[in-house]
């Protein structure tokens, strides 16, 4: 008896979910570091500085409406909703991990966007005259994009890691993101407006690799909590729909002014519509009585938006967008039906939200579609100026041709995959250290580990009963 | 005993909700058809094409910000939210049909908008030089509008039809919509910015006629499920509020640039505010203890936005908007209290969401308000140029005068009603065929017919008990 | 026995929650008054009138995109979402007052914005040539802002007052708001873009003073209902996130075109991000096992947006925003832990939503930050023109200097506090009259007082049981 107890104590010590010291310490120290680094490095750019009025006159800009703010702010707010409500609520589907889903998503996004402003700033927005990073609305969008990569990764480990681990994952994720983004966009000169490669492929494989490193052989001990209840599925639909509706803004947020933003929005709108129909078709076809599965509707309907990300700004043509969406709805839903169980059983990758089907695979498809579309671009379709503008064949790359651009796109995709897998394994090693306060195998997917849960009904009940009665909520 | 069983078997065969073949077949075939038709017909318009930069220079457009994208995209995204979250969540009020509400809404909207781009394109955006439909952001908005008509109709038959029936309803609904819209806007030259006639009147009567054709005399067998529970009512308020908040964008999305959009937004904002107060007043006044009814708050508060749709771009004046909203809040709420039960009992129209009170009646009022406001327009109020711009007295209609325009508006309203009722009866006939997989009378309003529902608690219980325990969710 | 009964009857008469006459009467009469006043006073301004096209030509405005509508409409819609979904859902956290939270919020906001258009119009938008108030999109935003002040006050008395009392509170609240706003912005010439002083400080102290006047010594009789349940906490997160995400639009909605809006959005975005981390840190640090408290995450994460309101348009610098957010997360969370219980016990202020921690204190901090930032402004940082534009050193105030502006800012803060406390005490006196239909002490926080609640499960149970079973919802 005493033996069992002492064994348990050791276990409890090993798997102590008390983060009372580590979480506040991480938050305080890192936030303080952010303040110092922002103080040293970050300033307003010329469009958000009070000197704008002089800049405007000096550059013959006729009106305040030409400030980049008015081109991008509506899209920025839509992207912002996707990051916090979209990703946050999409993960509330678990019957007893809604606080963790929406709350930790909130925490790591809020930290990640600060770190992203710095990391991306050093690579892209550094003003060499005074050594400062100059930020405007486009930087805010890019910071949100960068955070999206980490939130995708969170989907793979949802319910199995502590908030401290998530912070570490975000710190490294943002850092890796900024580096791979610089390599792909600037050195390789690939185009990736909606981030199929840079965001989704990277984020997907990053999360899957971490999940592989943190494999829990006895996770079935938490299986009673690893499912949805009726209302948690409806909450998750809030996330799905806000992601789905605002994805045209996501893919068009940082594309070229004018036709670039316009075309990216149209392509994404169409791809997503097409995905919904094939997702429904496959979901119904592969269930015994033709019933639809909410998991597919919540997730696979979004795959078209991921897959059209890279090519959204190209002349993909409306029917091209529909075809991309058509294929991705099928592939993503089949992934949920066959691939996710296979990966858990044989590859030891436990993917809570199925990010492989929603982000990693469609991201790779998106990269390939982008490469093909770029390689097939012709002056007759794009027009001379259109070709140069769309693919940015200027400066050091003024001699590029579409076919070569296609090769560069493919190279960019490879870099994203490598960074995702490599970075994930590295970070996974760090997260395996027994110091982070993650829950024991029989205690995953449970908000009570990290949240005050007040439902009095629960306190009247004890032990295992306590968990099964959650179904009544 | 064997007799009873064989009878039941026949019933089950007649009312088999298994859509495992029909639903995937419809989705795949129709989506493939969309891809082919899009390939043949649909291209980017000059503002979303890479040739925009040349077009801009040729037309002396000084800045990318003049691209229609920046005039309409914020409104488009708001309308998009209304279609998917607004309509979807508004219908989640039923205690056990939330998946169907939000999920089937998602499916038919995603299909409908593709078909709408084609149908409306053939009528309005066909470029006769090359036989292609050229699309931009305004077409996306119009496609969403067209879909709204079908989603309104869904409200009348919510919980009583199969997803395959909904797809058929949407296919015909969009087709009829495009034709009546062309007749009303182009041939009759009525103005209908917010679609009081074209969207709400048509959609309302279309749905009511279908519901009349599909009358279920024994629907009370499902009465245990035809109500809300506490949390499903809160979910429905998400739909209500997003519709209410973004209605100014709905009514101003395709009005004239500049003052047209500005005025439409103001009028709608005011009409909706006024409606809330009279809805609350009537709801409280007609209940025994003055208690408010969530059904009224969820629905009637929106009637003002419907009724101000046609006249929103006219010089309705702020007080005029308030008056419209004032009246509609009263009429719509009284409709829920008296008319809906009357229609069900005596006219055999079972209207699940009360779309007659929220869309059909206010739509008709909106058409009348539009006719009166147009007929009363004067040059002293509008200014010479303002009159021509607002009513589009140009081209073939350059000799129109306001009084005659009022007559045309009234004619437009009649066309909308006729198309709604006629089309609904026609489509209702088709939907009565016993091949569509709709549920039996005692099995309506139940997600388990078409969705995998995982609540384990339910599986421990059997028979009727299973249904009544839903209240605990 | 008869004695007890007659005593109860008196109590019931005193505390009769039947508002069947008073609520409809207030709604009808006040809405009718609005129509009349709008008819007499309110017209479209030159940018929303059909004469815009002539105005445009006369003023050499090159394009419709220069209409203020396109500068402010996206922000307006975001603010609108904050008012109705943000404030509404933030208050749904109570397990059995979600209808009242979101429904009464809806009612009073819809009334308040009409009255605000009039009150603010008389002070700010009166055209002296014809005695009319000319409205455009900026007036709609300001009306929403004005309403925000009253909704903040609602947070303090949530669950303890009747809808009629809320209407009275809003009528006086809007009136007081318009007066203090005029004094602070026009007479004192303080700047307050995001309304730290004008909206949050005023609204906070207004609500707290009313709550103090309406102190209920026996409120613990309703303590069984004064808490959250699992799903109501998730609903509240919808409110939190929409407030958090759209706060940059709130603070930038009415700032100067161009860099003013741009900078305000950036500062708010950063301050809010910083607040999240310190809120999490303090929440975890002060709980026994380091568990996070949803109350803090739902509320304190927003404090940074409040505190950066005044200074958002100034050159606060990105790191300055982070510092403001850092401090406010700490102060606000500590407020929930220590100050709210203290105020309830010793100061007799029962603050249901903790608005003192979310609005009043951060509002005061925001006022102070604004004063310091203004006083520290220099021409070298702002540029000559930038300084004049940002602080509006024009007209009667063309001789102002930053240091004096700092003093004026501080004076503005004092006015806001005085109006809040004074107005709240006055209105609280009125609301203590026993005619308003508020609930008895043992019946607070219960939707059944004012709403038809249909959960059948409840009707099978009686007495106290009825209340405790709510936990199962």
From TrEMBL, chains A, B, C:
Keywords of the record: Ammonia transport, Cell membrane, Glycoprotein, Membrane, Transmembrane, Transmembrane helix, Transport
UniProt keyword annotation of Protein transport present: no
Primary localisation category: membrane
Domain Ammonium transporter AmtB-like residues, every copy: 67-438
Annotated transmembrane regions: 21-42, 97-118, 164-185, 197-215, 235-254, 266-286, 319-339, 410-433
An annotated GO BP: ammonium homeostasis
A GO term for molecular function: ammonium channel activity
Membrane-protein topology: Multi-pass membrane protein
GO CC term (a single one): plasma membrane
Locations listed in the record: Cell membrane
Pfam families xref list: Ammonium_transp
InterPro entries: Ammonium/urea_transptr, NH4_transpt_AmtB-like_dom, RhesusRHD
Functional note: Functions as an ammonia transporter. May play a role in the elimination of ammonia in the gill.
Similarity section: Belongs to the ammonium transporter (TC 2.A.49) family. Rh subfamily.
Protein name: Rh family C glycoprotein
Gene that encodes the chain: RHCG
